[in-house]
Amino acid sequence: MEKLNTAICKKSMQKIQMVDLKTQYQKIKGDVDAAIQEVLDQTAFINGPQVKKFTEELREYTGAGYVVTCGNGTDALQIAMMALGFKPGDEVIVPAFTYVATVEVIALLGLKPVFIDVIEDTFELDFNQLESKITDKTVGIVTVHLYGQCSNMEEILKVAELYNLKVIEDNAQAIGAVYTFSNGRKAQAGTMGDIGTTSFFPSKNLGCYGDGGAMFTNDASLAEKLHMIANHGQKKKYYHDSIGVNSRLDTMQAAILSVKLKHLNRYSKARNEVALRYDLAFANHSKVRIPKRVKNSSHVFHQYTIRLDSSINRDEFKEYLAQKGIPSMIYYPLPLHLQKAYLNYGGKEGGFPIAEKLCKQVLSLPIHTEMGQDQQEYIIEQILNFFV
What is the pLDDT of residues 306-336, one digit of tens each? Predict the structure, then answer.
């Protein structure tokens, strides 16, 4: 009877998605459609008034001194490094366990990525190793707020100040997260280093319906450089003061983001509710380790990433979930220092044992703003059944 009830439940549910953008859109369809129509009516498709409006709204939301929008999150990282004046041969410290874009732009600019391991239970850059990575060629640290919570910015900023290094926050996965310093001061993710960067890829917590990105800074001169570089290196049209790129947020995407920004706190709350239900289900499980929350940051759960015990065949477990209609993703299956494209930067197996271990254990479960409790109960039931 129990198996029959489960089958009936599965048949009556909507298809389970890693991210349900369609249902999310349907709930805000009227506002989104009106925003798009306004852009169509105005026909200001490039640098239209919606871009300026969204930029100001995002600045107010994050508390950043300045926000500069751009074409995507990868561009944001590249423009940030260009604005900070990093030169070919300079060294930039970057986690070995993150998405490739973080290190990709370092290599593209002729800089040298210096990999650093991460903390096993929180996935964040291991700040205790920072000083051992610094040489006379080190110019910056890129820290990644992975999966939705902040790295230990207080310790990272201390080291950066001691050695006169620049700090870039890769905030593509943690927009809306809040960090609390030991003195009680609170700051939004992406607003504490020299420059913060983010992506508006559709599946992000604040995602548009195409590509988009932004940079945050509290330094007026840096903000001017960021804006100039993103706009062909010009402050005045047709007068180019520096080498730049062409990277801008589309007016249509800005209009959509302006609508979605109003819902971001609600989206974060919904994701946390899903995460809490997963936590309660797996908290004391011998084969599943739930993601640890760092004490000084809120979590916006871009991903809910579990770690499987080493005795579990992850591929078999993933395939089992797929057969039950449950999607899952591995973020990330291979650490950056072992990627073929980056082997010439000194990477070798065993060099960053925590990153390598996590790449064999992590698995992200479905989590999104529209997840129904019936879907999640089914996911939890099937996961628990696997271990019976």
Answer: 999 999 999 999 999 999 999 999 999 999 9
Q: What is the pLDDT of residues 40-90, one digit of tens each?
A: 999 999 999 999 999 999 999 999 999 999 999 999 999 999 999 999 999
**DSSP structure class, residue 136:** T
**The two structure tokens encoding residue 15:** 């298809």
Residues 6+ apart with CB under 8 A from 289: 121, 306, 307, 308, 309
| Token digits of residue 386 | 């696997």
Q: What residues contact 252, with CB distance under 8 A and at least 6 apart?
A: 36, 39, 45, 50, 209, 210
Cα(101)–Cα(74) distance, integer angstroms? 6
**Helices 2-12/373-386 angle, 10° precision:** 140
d(CA 327, CA 315): 13
The owner of tokens 């927009």 is 175
List all residues 6 or more positions away from 247 whose beta carbon is below 8 Å from its beta carbon: 70, 71, 72, 75, 79, 213, 230
Q: How many whole angstroms separate alpha carbon 116 and alpha carbon 119?
A: 10
Q: Which of 114, 145, 150 is nearest to 131 (CA)?
A: 114
Pairing status of strand 362-365 against strand 304-308: antiparallel
- d(Cα 85, Cα 158) in Å, to the nearest integer? 21
Cβ count near 359 (within 10 Å):
19
Which sign, positive or negative, has the C-alpha torsion 352, 94, 74, 145?
A: positive
In this predicted model, what pLDDT tens digit does every residue of 114-151 receive, in sequence order?
A: 999 999 999 999 999 999 999 999 999 999 999 999 99
| Nearest C-alpha neighbor of 372 from the set 8, 12, 7, 5 | 12
With a CB cutoff of 8 Å and minimum separation 6, the contacts of 76 are 70, 197, 198, 199, 213, 214, 215
